[in-house]
Amino acid sequence: MAHFAGLLSGALLIGFYRWRRRGKTAEIVHRQDDEQAIGELRQRAEDLVAKMQVGPAALQYKRLFAEYPQQVAGDLATEYLRIARLSRQDELEADARRQLLLAAARQPKSVAPTLLADVLQGANTPKLSATQWDSLLARLIDSRQFDTAENLLLRLFPHQDIRSTTLRQANRLINAFEAAGL
Known about the structure:
182 residues
C-alpha cells in the first residue's frame, strides 16, 4: 500500500510540474532560458559598442562564447571578431578567430567563405578535430577559395592525427583545380 501511495504522489507531483510549466519539457524550458541569457549578453555587448567601449564589449562576447559554446551561431562569431579587431587586443582577436572557426565547422554556411579565408590566413592554426577541419576545408574548396585551402592543407599536413582528412581534402582540391582549368 505504501508503494502505491508513493507512485500516486509521484505521478501527482509530475502532473503539477507539467501543468505549471504549461506542458513544456525541461529541455524546452532550458533552451528558452539559454536563448534569453544569450540575448541579454548580446544586448550588453551591443550597448557597450554603442558607447564606443569595444574592449569591454569584446569581453562580453568572449563570455558569451565561454558560457554557451554550442548554442552560438556564425553571425555572433562574426560580430565578436569585428569587435575584437577593434579592441586591438591580440588575445581577444585570437579567441574570436577560434570561435569563428568553430562556428563555421558546426554550421559551414553560417560564415562567409571570404571571411573564413581571411581568418585562416593567420599564422596561428587552432587545434580542431579532424571532422572540423574536414568541414572547413570542404567549405573553402566548394566556395573556390583555392589558395587558402592549399595553404591550409600545407600547414595541416604535418599533423599526424588529421593526415587522412588532409589527404582526402587534397584530392578534392586537385579535382577542383582540374575542373576550374587551373
